[in-house]
Amino acid sequence: MGGSALQESQVLPEELKRVLRRERYQLVGEHSAVKKCRWLHNSLLGGEACYKNKFYGINSWRCLQMTPSVAHCTLRCRFCWRVQSEDIHLPFNETAMDAWDDPSSIVEGAIEAQKRILSGYKAHALVSSERYSEAIEPKHAAISLAGEPALYPDLNGLVREFHSRDFTTFIVTNGTVPERIEKLEREPTQFYVSVCASSEASFLKVCKPQIAGAWQKLNKTLDLLSSLSCPTVMRLTLARDVNLSDAEGYAKLIEKANPTYVEPKAYVYVGMSRLRLRFENMPTHKEIREFGERLCTLTGYQMIDESKSSRVVLLSRLKKAIRLI
Fold first, then answer.
1. Residue 308 — pLDDT band, cuts 50, 70, 90?
2. CB count, 10 Å around CB of 225?
3. Quick check: is 3 in a domain?
4. 211, 212, 218, 223: CA torsion to nearest 10
5. Which of 161, 157, 187, 150 is nearest to 64 (CA)?
6. Is residue 1 included in any domain, yes or no?
7. Which of 32, 99, 150, 267 has a CA 20 to 30 Å removed from the CA of 8?
8. Is residue 271 part of a domain?
9. CA angle 178, 52, 314 (to 5 degrees)
C-alpha cells in the first residue's frame, strides 16, 4: 500500500518511536527520519565541516541526513548505531516494508524536519545570518542515516523528487537488495556500498544478516557497480578486533567492484552500537591510514585524501576526487 501517508500505528510500534525520539531522530511520516549530525552543527558555528565537504565539496551546513527506512534493514551489524529490535526486546519485522509513504511527502517532510532542527540556531551568536539562510535551504541529501534505503520500494522516485528540487544525493546501501539497484533508473549524484567484511564467514559474524543469501546479494551489487554512470564508493566501516583485518580479502572485493573510490573509515562508538561494542573497538586514524596504505599496495589505488577528525582515508585511481558542487 503506497502513494499516501498511512495511519501512525501501521508501520512502527509506538515504543520504537519513543526510543527513536529519545535518540533525537525527527520522524517523518511512517518510516522515514532526519537527524542532525555533529558536522552540521560544527559547520554552522564556523567550525570544521564533514569529510564529504573536504573530499567532494558538499557544504555540511546544507546537508540533510535522512533515511526512508529508519527501522528497516536486512542486517544487524554489530557496529551500527541504529536501534535494532533486539536492543529494546521488541519483536518487529525489520526486513520488509508492507506499506510506505510516497516520495514527495517524504522529501517535503524531511525538509520541514530539517528546518525544525535548525530553528534554534537563528539567534546563536556564532552562526552568521548568511550561513543560517543557506542552511535552512538544504541542497544535499545523504540518504544514509539508518536502516537500508533500498528496502523503500520507490527509491527511484525518492531520488527523482530530491533532484527536482535541485538537491545532490548520496545513496548508501548495504548491497543486499541488488534488484532495487538493477532497477535504479534515476541514479543519485554518488552511490555508496558499505562493505564491512572481507569474507562470508566474517560477514555472518559481523553483519548478522536477517535474510537468506545476503553475502551473495552483496556480491551481486558489487558486480553491478560498473553499470552505474555516477561515481561509486565502497565504504569500509572498520572496527578494531572486529573486521579491521584481512586486507587481502577486501582487496579482492575492491578489484571485483572497481569503484571510483574506496573509503576505509573507523567505527565510531555512538548510538546503539555501544550496546554491542566497546570504546576500545574504535580505531585510531593511524590504524585506518595504515590499512588504507596496505589496500593501495594490493589494488593499485592511490591515497588521494584523508580526514583525521573523521578517521577516514580516500583511495582512488583518480588523481583527485570529483567535486560534486
1. very high
2. 19
3. no
4. -140
5. 161
6. no
7. 150
8. yes
9. 75
Q: Which three cell numbers stand for residue 317?
A: 585511481
**What DSSP character marks residue 75?**
B
Cβ contact 70:113 at 8 Å: no
Total domains present in the chain: 1
Residues 66 and 30: their CA atoms lie apart, in Å, by 14
Query: Cα–Cα distance between 65 and 142 in angstroms, integer?
Result: 5
Which residue from 121, 119, 111 is spatially nearest to 42, judged by alpha carbons?
121
Q: What is the pLDDT of residue 325?
A: 73
Nearest to 105 by CA among 12, 163, 55, 32: 32
pTM of the model: 0.92
Q: What is the pLDDT of residue 98?
A: 80
pLDDT at position 282 over 90: yes
What pairing do the DSSP bridges indicate for beta strands 232-238 and 302-307? unpaired
- Structural domain includes residue 323: no
| Selection from 295, 190, 201 nearest residue 250 by Cα | 295
Residue 263's beta-bridge partner residues?
A: 235
Give residue 162's domain range.
8-316
- 229: nearest Cα among 184, 177, 178, 175: 184
Q: What is the DSSP letter of 114?
A: H
Give the Cα separation of 4 and 7 in Å (integer): 10
CATH code for the domain in which residue 203 is found: 3.20.20.70
Residue 172: all three cell numbers together: 548508501
Which whole number is the average pLDDT over 121-129?
91
